[in-house]
Amino acid sequence: MTIGVGFLLVLALGLLAGWLGYRRGLGFVATHSTEVGAVHSRPGYHAAYVAVLALLPALLLLTIGAVMGPGLVSREVLASVPAGAVGPSDLEQAAFLSEVRGLVSGSYAAAFNPQAESAAAVWKAASLRYGLIFGLGALALGGVGAFWGWTRLRPDFRARTRVEKLTMGLLVLASLVAILTTFGIVASLVFESFRFFQMVSPAEFLFGTKWSPQTAMRADQVGSSGAFGAVPLFWGTVFIGAIIAMVVAIPLGLMTAIYLTQYAAPGFRRWAKPMLEVLAGVPTVVYGFFAALVVAPAVRNFAVSIGISDASSESALAAGLVMGVMIIPFVSSMADDALTAVPRAMRDGSLAMGATPSETIRKVLIPAALPGIVGGVLLAVSRAIGETMIVVMAAGLAANLTANPFNSVTTVTAQIVALLTGDQEFDSAKTLSAFALGLVLFLVTLALNIYALAVVKKYREAYD
Amino acid sequence: MTDRLSTLDAVTPTVWSSPQMQARIRRRYRQERLFKYTGIAALALAAGFLLFLMTSVISDGWTSFKQTEISVPVVFDPVRLGVTAEQAKADPTLLRRANFPGVLADSVAKAHGDEVEIVSDGGWLALREAVEADPALIGKTVPMWVIATSNIDQLAKGRIDLDADEGDRPVNDAEVAAWKRLEAKGDIRTVLNTTFLTSADSVDPELAGIWGALKGSFLTAIITLLISFPVGVLAAIYLEEFAPKNRWTDLIEVSINNLAAVPSIIFGLLGLAVFLNTMNMPRSAPVVGGLTLALMTLPVIVIASRAAIKAVPPSIRDAALGIGASPVQVVTHHVLPLALPGMLTGTILGMARALGETAPLLMIGMRAFLTSVPQGFTQPATALPVQIFIWSDNVSRGFVEKTSGAIIVLLLFLLMINSLAIYLRNRFEVRW
Q1: Sign of CA dihedral B291, B292, B297, B301
Q2: What Pfam families has UniProt attached to this entry (chain B) (predicted)?
Q3: Which of B123, B137, B131 is nearest to B96 (CA)?
Q4: For the domain A227-463, what is the CATH code?
Q5: Does A340 touch chain B (CB under 8 A)?
Q6: Do A259 and B328 touch (CB under 8 A)?
Q7: Model-level pTM?
Q8: Which of residues A215 and A305 earns the better pLDDT score?
Q9: Residue A293 touches chain B, beta carbons under 8 Å
């Protein structure tokens, strides 16, 4: 709360500093109005220079305060409680602190722990004190910065150059966020996977065929070992995402692309393309709901009617079908790009020889566009195996190693969700295995993407 | 092959009127038509699926915007309530502890019998609101409309197949009889479902609403937009206008292109490992969800913004540089304003994707069961797609209806956002 007020005050200080800088700059212009080039920068740059000097250090301090403040307050509160009143474990301390927070915010009328009442007072005092320290510190720092900047302003002071240097720094920082994100993903996945592989051998994980991650909470429980052979998961992912979904998406996506690029009148195209975009824009959770509620029962009834009595209500086929439909627009737009990149002369040549349009498409365009189409399909596969909600809602969690599409299989993504939702301890092999699965998924999709993009790029260059 | 060619030679293949030639041409044209129809069929199949999905969601969900109420003459008995009108006037907080559920149960039993439950567990809240507004009601008998249970609600909406056996349908015969009695007396009506639009989740379908989830989605989207838009635009400007060609910028480009294709659930794992476990940020909070989705949306915005910047013709930059503008001034005065519509369109499309995203939010715990509307960025919240996911687990008829209703709201929002993007694109985009 106090940090928020401090933030507003610092912003006001920045505005004031900017205004002072602007006035100063205007003054330079007025006094040197007859000499060309005597004033280096326009008043706006003087303003920006002073404002930045006021804001940058102050905001930095406030951010530090906002990040560290709660930790400092919690430590003080825990120190104020008589020893032994709160258990030593992190869980008990966290529970106590959340109780105190509830008392302070007024959402709890009374506390369960007798110490909480007095701790709440300590909390209030400490958070006010730290808020004041950081808030006033930031204001003072901002004031010093603004004053120093203001005294440096001269008619020949190169304010614009300095402001532009800062801007460049900001631009570089922003583009580093992408690298940081990639690094963060790799680091967190590798780190947690490493911890997992200390408990389970990588060979068992990658080649084992039994998946049952239920580890016991107590040592004396039965079946406490858990099995982490991920092959059934990999198979389920490939079966749903790369086989069933692609059987649906490749013909349909390719044919829609062919029809739209080669046959459809421009007016029809204008209507049909947004329709495909709508199909692509429907959130996956909606597809998942539809798959679970409508498609899965229909598939099951169909299976029973053709004599498969053990058909599961959560079948690979239902999830795969719906995922295939979801991927159609993606395959279609990739094929569209590939087909339109084929030089017009090839198509015209074939037509001029007397081939019908369909013969031209099948014998000239598709072979010529094949690398592009294959690249697009690979990208579609990478998207399908990373898709989560449809399989979570429609494919089930039974890790079966089966090629029967009416049976239930599970996928890597569905297992990640199942392993990490719910309350577990973060050190168990069960939760850590989710990160190992995530690492495999990340590496596979990455490899697919890099390879597919290389194929598509090479193909484009061939016709450029 | 060769013998076929030789027989063709025998009848001179270039004679177009020969029956063989005519047959071949017919076959080829038939194949042509067939191919074309396959294309139309593929398109029709995709359109048909979309239509099927939409109609099934809308027909299941549109009734969730309606609510069934039952007329009950409520006897505000001060003894049963535990509060008299004078006490309530002097100290309104007493009403918080007054026995409204008991009063409602008595009144319902008196008017409609008590063999089956027809009034929702939360129906008494309307009574309390009425008395809080006017304490003088205590001691009087007031006719009021009270929310019905989900089963009566589904019966009134015609969602239950009455011809099915009692064991096969979710409502029993006693409830059907009670509903028919209410219909006959005219003590039942269907009104706009304000509960669905204004409240948060609940265990009872008739009391569950989407406002909590919707507000959670808004809070998350605000954080996502505030982070991903400036960072994305700045990164795009740097890469497109200033970056030198070296290994570092190549690395940045590669990582942006790859991040755009990383499965969304991986971002959820990142959020869980970094924001929750390393930085100890609050679980289930919109601020963490917004950060995670911002990282996911960032590459989309960067790629769209770069395309928009690339579309600005170099002659404009050259002209500005020629009259003495610094490179930064060229960007801020000319390139940025010209590229902004394209950047905004890309950002809006990226936000639409983020708004419909579920998996990363599940990873950071935004799937909690929350009966109160979130009040801030650090309080536990859920988001609309996650709410859909939570409800979809529930098999009761009332929740299937509510899930579809929530999907309708989500799709409406996405439609509005995308229309805005299309409008912006058509209105402001300049073709050079």
Answers
A1: positive
A2: BPD_transp_1, DUF3333
A3: B131
A4: 1.10.3720.10
A5: no
A6: no
A7: 0.87
A8: A305
A9: yes
